[in-house]
Amino acid sequence: MAFLFSKEKRVVFSRRVKGFWEEFRQTKIGLVGIALISFYVLMAIFAPLLATHDPTREWGLASGWAMPEWVTIFPQYSDAARTMKPSLDWVIGQSSAFVSVTTGEGWVAEYRGNESATIKILSSFDYPYRAPGDFHMDFWWEVQPVEAAEYIGELYVVSPLGAEYLIWSTYQSTSATPLFTNRTTAAIPMVMRSVALKPNILARLGVAEADNPCDRIFIEKGEYKLTFKIDFKPASEGTVRISVTQVIFRILGRVHGMLGTDHLGGDVWSQLVWGARVSLAVGFTAAILATSLGISIGIIAGFSGGAVDEVTMRIVDILLCLPVLPLLLGFFKLWGPNVFYLVLLIAVFGWQGLSRIVRSQVLYLKEMPFIECARAAGASKYYIMFRHLLPNVVPVALASLVLSVPAAVLTESALSFIGFGDPNIPTWGRILNQAFSYGAFRYLSWHWILPPGIALTTLTLSFVFVGHAVDAVVNPRLRRRR
Amino acid sequence: MTLRGYILRRIIFGLFILYVIATLNFLIFQVFAPVDPASTVLDPRLTADAMERMRVLYGLRDPLHIRYLRYLRNMFTWDWGYSFRTMRPVVTDLSWRLMNTVLLLGSAMICVIMVGLPVGILAASKRGTKIDLIAIGAGIFTYGVPTFFIQLLFLLFFSYYIKSIIGFTLFPAAGLVDIPPPKDPIAYMANVAWHMAMPLMTLVIAGFGGWALYTRNILLDALTQDYIVTARAKGLSERTVLYRHALRSSLPPIVTIVAMAIPGIVTGAIITEFIFSWPGIGSWYIGGLQEGDYPVVQAVMFMYATLMIIANIVADLLYAALDPRIRVGARM
């Protein structure tokens, strides 16, 4: 407000602020509130540094519903599966006629002759944990020339005890038209996800469709093998090249990061940190907008009186009668969920209470002698409104400002929670919505449900604390009572 | 101004608000973001011709002002049309859903008041003691904690966690009754009560604090008045002072706030019903919005507004009736 005053008045103003602070400092609850708010403000400011991942773009960091990584300090979780990307060195397991070239991320095998053959190419990795949530393998599969062979290609996981589990297969017969003949390259991208295996493969594994195949495959700890097995019958004499390249093999753990993962394997901690930014931004902007609307409308209505006053107060009456939450939902249907509209709507539906208070205050103030003096000195209407009335209603509005921040935050989170939030922005309400909709309760993912809720609660409470403290300082009736 | 004139004026004003709400509804769902009822029928055999006939049948090919006037007439005569989803009259669905909502939130409100008011009175009478502090703390806490978070916590711990630990359901997580519902009426009622227990508890926990704080502050206000000092000076017992003098003078604001809270029985449940899949008005409203079932949405909004307006008028009248200091004309 300092710009509103001349130099002398600025000194008076700064003294007033100091006096306010002196009194505010006495209230313990207010200081606790300030500390909590600063904590979340810092979190919001440093969100890009604190977040370990991009909450809107990075998924599959671990398996879905993964627990936080720090639970591994408890003995019952000490061998919970971590996310790992084993490096694979491929070796020839069986076959003589093949000339094979292996590389770090795949292998190429060449065959000359026209005899049927079976080749095995394998790679081993060490797996020291309990069963993971998911494992997946992406690679390019290529047989050249395309029509040259009839084959069945299979991929097995071999457990330390020697049990073989088929997890992927492909085949080609010369009688059938080969797949993708019109491609310039014969390489076919293959995707294997353990959580999305085909029913026939699940049936061969003996796993019900609702169950996780990892729990059947990764029973023991030790050295596992990945084995490509190709039953091969060349159609004619010549060289056939089989290659598996650009292999990406990942085992998705059941623990991840600070707060685990959501259903897609996204990082909950990053979502939470970015959510602080959105929540605070929405809260502060909506509160400031609503409060300035309330103050200006209250001043104008109270000072002008007459028809202006009557009309504004009727509008206030209407707004007080409207069912706000259903109406907000309706407007979202109209405009689509967008956080800017949300802020505007919260402000538009949030000024009426304050404007009533400000108006009554102005009605009382405008009969005071100092306003009459200003009028007599020839001050214009607007000058009086903004230089004389405004500074006097600011203390009243201050508590309202502080209390309308959590109201806006809660409105935003409630809307997001029931699924009417902006889908592109991570907010605390949206985290809760996703947790509620995507099985956080079924999998008992407390680390996904509790943090956003606790953050919301503490943020709201901190503003309520500060609001009460401010109220106790600026509200003369409360002060007397103390 | 006479009382009758005041009531008349309030009613006319209320009708005007209803008109505003109805118009907003019309603008949102039929002009700016129109929902094509033909698109809500997911039948591949539906030809373009049939869709067009359907639109004509629904009156969507009439000029806008005719549609608007007909819409207003239907709204104000409680002729709210048919739900696109169930193809039943909206009023039919509304009646049983309203019953479910009122059952849950009505009992919640009674419980909240029965807990909140005594706590508030107790806190005010023991002002400055530990009991007072606890009451204030609980009040501020339940004011600050979002209701839906309390509900999620209950759902997580009292439904899912307990089920995973002891192996049977302590509180069901969702719904109104078991499916299939029990045949015996008593068993049926018990089953509904069992399903209602958790939403009810959470609503009471989230709601009583505000009531306690409000009652406490009103009562404290009354207790600092001069006539209380007089009553104490007369040597009346503290009990008499509290219940006969202070409580009686603080009744009007409390009763008013009770009256103002009554529409909350219907409107305050959107999120609660969403969380516990309670087949009431609120979950119906959300479903209607998401599926473009606008007859439902319009009807629910209209009913919400009607209730809020009636409650506002009743609250004002109650205030005037209970508090002789308030003269009806004075605040206009």
Outline the biggest β-sheet of chain A: 5 strands, antiparallel
Low-confidence stretches of chain B are 328-332
CATH class of the largest domain in chain A: Mainly Alpha
Biggest interface between protein chains, with counts per chain?
Answer: A-B, 40 and 48 residues
Number of strands of chain A: 10
- The CATH topology of the largest domain in chain A is MetI-like fold
End-to-end Cα distance of chain B:
9 Å
Structural class call of chain B reads mainly alpha
Q: Which whole number gives the mean pLDDT of chain B?
A: 84
CATH superfamily of the largest domain in chain A: MetI-like
Overall spatial form of chain A: elongated
| Strand arrangement across the biggest beta sheet of chain A | 1-4-9-6-7
Strand content of chain A: 15-25%
Quaternary organisation: heterodimer
Please work out how many helical segments of chain B DSSP would assign: 14
Shape of chain B: flat
How many helical stretches of chain A? Answer: 15
Secondary structure: number of strands of chain B:
0
What structural class is derived from the secondary structure elements of chain A? alpha+beta
Task: Jot down its keywords.
heterodimer, A: 482 residues, alpha+beta, MetI-like fold, Jelly Rolls, 2 domains, five-stranded antiparallel β-sheet, B: 332 residues, mainly alpha, 75% helix, flat, disordered C terminus
Descriptive account of the structure:
The complex is a heterodimer of chains A (482) and B (332). Chain A is built from 15 helices and ten strands. With 482 residues, chain A is an alpha+beta fold. Chain A has a five-stranded antiparallel sheet. A five-stranded antiparallel sheet of chain A has the order 2-3-10-5-8, with no helix packed on it. In chain A, helix 2 (28-45) crosses helix 6, helix 6 runs parallel beside helix 9 (339-348) and helix 7 runs antiparallel to helix 10. With 332 residues, chain B is an all-alpha fold. Chain B has 14 helices and no strands. The termini of chain B are close together. The relative contact order of chain B is 0.14. The model of chain B is unreliable at 328-332 (pLDDT under 50). The chains are: A alpha+beta (482), B mainly alpha (332). The interface between A and B is large, with 40 and 48 residues.
